[in-house]
Amino acid sequence: MRIDRNRNALIAAAFASLAALMMCAAMKAQAAEIIPSIGITQAKDADNAKPNVGLALRGTAIPSLLDLEVRGQYRQEERFNGALKEKMWPITASAWLTPLRVVYAGAGVGWYNTTLDYQDSALKSETSNKFGVHAGAGLRVPMSYRFALDLNGRYVWMENQQTLIIPKSFNPDFWDLSAGLAFSLGGHH
Fold first, then answer.
1. Which residues, in sequence order, are bridge partners of residue 106?
2. C-alpha angle 144/147/153, rounded to 5°?
3. Which residue from 78, 50, 84 is spatially nearest to 167, judged by alpha carbons?
4. pTM of the complete model
5. pLDDT of 66-80, one tens digit each?
6. Dist CA 53 CA 37 (whole Å)
7. CA 173 to chain centre
8. Where are the domains of the chain?
9. Max CA distance (Å), the chain
10. DSSP character for 102?
11. Hey, what CATH topology would domain 2-184 get?
12. In DSSP terms, which residues pair with 132 in a beta bridge?
């Protein structure tokens, strides 16, 4: 358990460092956006698609080529006909290729803080931290000098999640589709 805690602390520190570097690069380029969003998520082994909310900070690292993004999100869904409720707070870092300012594509990594709540009150809730990777694409539609509609889709791959109920594990991979309003913090985007 101690090794897992140390590994998770190291991952969190790496994400914090990466986020700081990304924001320094974005502020140097003087083009950054804050993007609140709402969306839907559909997990591979989940019962139904569910809503989610998120907040991203995206900045231009190399104009007309590369944007970097840090994103936080909240999502929850039920599995196994309501026997298990999964709550997830992912923090992700993405690199988006942007040769055309309205279309972008890329990939990234994430830290996924996940709580499993069991319908059976005899079973204690469990919280774990996992690492995942994602790939996706998006569309950025300018609405004015300071605002743009941001449509984003990504697929997230993660390692199987263990549970206290049968089946003893499930595949936590999921699709995420979101729509956000990008607010420019300065510079030309």
1. 96, 136
2. 125
3. 84
4. 0.78
5. 999 999 999 988 877
6. 6
7. 12
8. 2-184
9. 56
10. T
11. Porin (2.40.160)
12. 110, 158
